[in-house]
Design goal:
Chain lengths: ~375, ~140
């Protein structure tokens, strides 16, 4: 049996989306051309833009297509910073590397960076955020849902906390993990900039979008033609965009059905491992996380060896602890939540998707206890803790 | 990340010599949870200075488990002096190579081995002194 529980990394393309992409591939005109070949391609791009705008609850003029979530994040933050002389920027301690590493680099380039902490459940400390806001702050970038734990962040509160004191500060949110998994409308969040990606919602890789609220000015990062309102030059990825448009529509229209099913599986899985494996920690508050994500620390074992053993049973999961070159550093997300190093090293992220079945969770629950037991028998920490 | 070799996978899926030795001749304990790996290497040495048994316990990634297993296999049957010459490079080679980011695991295995041998030498010195004192 092959069980894919790594949907926060990427998702399988749905059949409908695949068909949409293939048919768009026959339309080979350049959307910027004036002739009918170009117009056909332009129509495909604009139909997709409208679908994404509807899924996000905004105007189609507010959507810029990009090459993916990472590019959207960089375009949002760096693109805005190019328009201002303010040098203070704020983010959280738990961002995806697209934002996390960008802020590290911006710091080296001379920006003053504030990184706001989270509580033990991985939820942003808004009071701490308020203390860091100032006249000199240019932008605040806080993710909508965390990729490792699924913890949903209070972005609407962030926006009102920021804007009530400093209306000039721009708020960006990385909604790559949240889009299609939780209900939200950009207008309700109140953000100025919001990043999304296609391949997390059963769409194709290499295409994303940035919502830019009407009235907010950002500048292009690469030089080129007048595509995407001069903000993102380069001929549009027409087929990818077509697939993204449909994927966005399907994920938002199916959100209640999917989440209902995912919540049931999540409860079953958490109950199942609590009954069959001792000395575990479910990271984060399951009530405040995405329906598809469960992050568990199996104390006294190391995450990568768990992944490898589950992989031999055909089960695909990932670690919270990203293996960085040279050394194995515990996940910055779990560290920010105050988890101890042993527990972070043994953290595993199970991320379900719309094709996950109950049989697959049963299979996981059948295999997981023996994998953990086997690794614990090898672990010197197991004896020490007893 | 680079793929693990088939030899690494073999030692990860069926590691040799997992466990502890009762009344070991020497023990090497290296690593810490912050860096992600902890290795414990136990050796049993006979009066001809030959390593007759070696066992390990490891908290770590696939490469850490595989290098621990390999190092125990490589030293059993060797004299202590020969075992001491088993380097991280030799362990890596025996495993058919390791991904670059995992090279530190083989360094850790070598350190665990050196510490176990040092511990053995300390213990035998003490024993000898005790005997001399009694004698």
């Amino acid at each position: 049996m092959r069980v894919y529980l790594d949907n926060n990394s990427t998702t399988p393309i749905s059949d409908e989306v695949k068909k949409e992409i293939v048919s768009a591939m026959d339309v080979y005109g350049n959307p910027s051309s004036l002739h009918q070949f170009g117009v056909e391609a332009r129509n495909i791009v604009e139909k997709a833009r409208l679908r994404i705008a509807q899924a996000l609850g905004c105007d189609n003029q507010e959507i810029i297509f990009t090459g993916g979530g990472t590019e959207s994040d960089n375009l949002a933050v760096r693109g805005y910073l190019k328009t201002t002389s303010k040098k203070h920027i704020i983010t959280s301690a738990i961002e995806h590397h697209a934002v996390y590493n960008m802020f590290n680099e911006l710091e080296k380039e001379g920006y003053r960076v504030s990184r706001i902490g989270v509580d033990k459940n991985g939820i942003l400390d808004i009071e701490q955020l308020k203390e860091h806001l100032s006249e000199e702050t240019a932008i605040v970038s806080i993710m909508l849902a965390n990729n490792e734990t699924g913890a949903v962040q209070p972005i609407a509160e962030v926006v009102s906390a920021v804007k009530s004191i400093y209306p000039h500060i721009i708020v960006h949110t990385d909604a790559v993990q949240a889009f299609g998994k939780m209900k939200f409308k950009v207008k309700d969040l109140g953000v100025d900039l919001l990043s999304v990606s296609a391949h997390k919602i059963n769409g194709p890789k290499g295409v994303g979008a940035l919502y830019v609220r009407k009235g907010v000015k950002i500048k292009h990062l690469v030089s080129g033609g007048h595509h995407e309102r001069n903000i993102r030059p380069g001929t549009e990825n027409v087929a990818g965009i077509a697939g993204f448009g449909l994927a966005a529509e399907l994920s938002v229209s199916g959100i209640d059905r999917n989440n209902g099913q995912l919540e049931k599986l999540k409860i079953k899985f958490i109950k199942g491992i609590r009954e069959s494996i001792d000395n575990i920690t479910v990271n984060g508050d399951p009530e405040k996380t995405l329906s598809n994500t469960v992050n568990v620390s199996f104390n006294n074992v190391e995450g990568e060896s768990v992944i490898m053993m589950l992989d031999m049973h055909g089960i695909a999961v990932s670690t919270g602890s990203a293996c960085t070159s040279g050394s194995l550093e515990p996940s910055h997300v779990l560290k920010a939540m105050g988890a101890d190093p042993v527990s972070s090293q043994g953290s595993i992220r199970f991320s379900m998707g719309k094709y996950t079945t109950e049989d697959e969770i049963d299979y996981l629950l059948e295999k997981l206890p023996s994998v953990i037991e086997r690794l614990r028998k090898m672990s010197p920490l197991e004896r020490e803790s007893k | 990340m680079e793929q693990y070799s088939s030899k690494v996978m073999e030692h990860f899926t069926s590691p040799k010599n997992v466990g502890e030795i009762e009344n070991p001749s020497g023990v090497g304990h290296v690593g810490n949870p912050v860096c992600g790996d902890i290795m414990e290497l136990y050796i049993k040495v006979d009066d001809k200075e030959v390593v007759t048994d070696a066992k390990f316990k490891t908290f770590g990634c696939g490469a850490a488990i595989a290098t621990s297993s390999m190092v125990t296999e490589m030293i059993i049957g060797k004299t202590v002096d020969e075992a001491e010459k088993v380097s991280n490079r030799a362990v890596t080679e025996a495993l058919g190579g390791l991904p670059k980011v995992k090279m530190h695991c083989s360094v850790l295995a070598e350190e665990a081995l050196k510490k176990a041998i040092d511990d053995y030498r300390e213990r035998s010195k003490d024993e000898k002194n005790n005997k001399d004192n009694k004698g």
